[in-house]
Model the fold of this input.
Amino acid sequence: MTRSATIPTKRSNSTPLIAGIVLIILALVIAVYVAKPGFRTAAPAIAPTPVATQAASVAPPNQALRAKETNFAFGSISMAAGKVSHRFWFRNEGSSPLSIKRIYTSCMCTTATFVKGMRKVGSYGMPGHGATVPDVNESLAPSEAAYVDVVFDPAAHGPAGLGRTERVVTVEPAAGEPLQFGFVANVTP
Done:
């Protein structure tokens, strides 16, 4: 009679190693988020639905370029859901034509397109980093309206971009004070 002995093979259990690696990565992500400038432990709540700050006409005295709203709150937006946009309308309230010289944004995650009637001009972004922002060189007749279509990409900064985000778009006329439009968003994964 022959007996065969079977010796059980030893399997490597890598579950604790994988769990450890995942915990380390999670700790690093949290550390980067907490170290982000402007981090607050008790951040003010942002409205869950878009809310616009409206005024009859917002502009400094003697300014021909006027806007109905200069601030907008996107509320909570998901990086996974993709880009969001908002239109900021403005008008030439002066008695002579007004030339729009430049449009630029405060961050590379935001772009702005000038739209007058059915005509779209450019996709303007942030100056710097070796890039220049081209001139718009479009004019608005007295009482003529136009808008900037502002697009914000919440995924542009990756995990470091989570939380409250504020950006500005500047419309610079050839003469007079620039008009600034701002928005705020609470970026979630």
